[in-house]
Write a structure and sequence with these properties.
alpha/beta; globular; 29% helix
Length: 306
Amino acid sequence: MFRATENFRWCEEFTTDELKVMYSLKRILASGKSKFQNFDLVETGPFGRILQLDGKIQSAEFDEHVYHESLVHPAMLHHPNPKTVFVGGGGEGATVREVLRHKTVERVVMVDIDQEVVEFCKEHLPANREAFADPRLEIVYDDAKGWLERSNEKFDVIIGDLADPLDGGPCYMLYTRTFYEFLLTKINDGGIFVTQSTACGALTHKEGFSRVYNTMRQVFASVVPCRCFVDSFIDCWGFNIGFTNKDATKLSPEEIEKRIAERVTGELKYLDGEAYLGIISLPKDIRATLASEKRLFREEDADSLE
């Protein structure tokens, strides 16, 4: 939402029903609309250029690397030799950009339902143009769940960079126990699944993060919850990594450093061994919530939520 005062134009955004944040707007650089959503590229005071979807920050040039490095690299580095990767969503291109930095990767399939947003990002987000042009990448404009159901392919790593599982929302079904059970049939032996898991701050972690975690742990051999603070989101953001190998263990900071040096092209801005240790080290109150969480995202609940 945009509004003006005497000295500035402002963007307003609710982080919870009772908390609203504002940041100064310098100019609107480009806008578009698809049958799914409105999208804008705007220049702000604190975060530089930001991509907005339906008036909410999707990513900011100031700190999008924090989110995308935390989503992609811990899962990729835990796999011994990731060659094939599926990305659900991720239309702005930053998720596949980070995936393609891994030297072992031979094929990436990105399935996003909104072609207009992807084309908009290709044109207006120069940091991701090289990734979009990488011959290892195949972009499909489709529903991620439907494409996987029709495909015979399996993948070493599957990444969910989808919209939040809002009750009755378009991505709700892709966070359900039924969908996660289906994903197990699309992951190669020893493969890994990671998904963005909504806000994970003191005020917000019970809304979706803990529920995603509990749903995943019903299906995967083990689940590692993670979070990082993203300044432009004004909150911590959560991720959950699901392992198909029951013997999988967390890596040491030293091993993370070693694998980054051996396997990742270029220098990461955010993630190293010490930062990895930080994102997998959740505070006591959130660990208590995860331990006691009983709710699931269930397919059978979807109809009642529409």
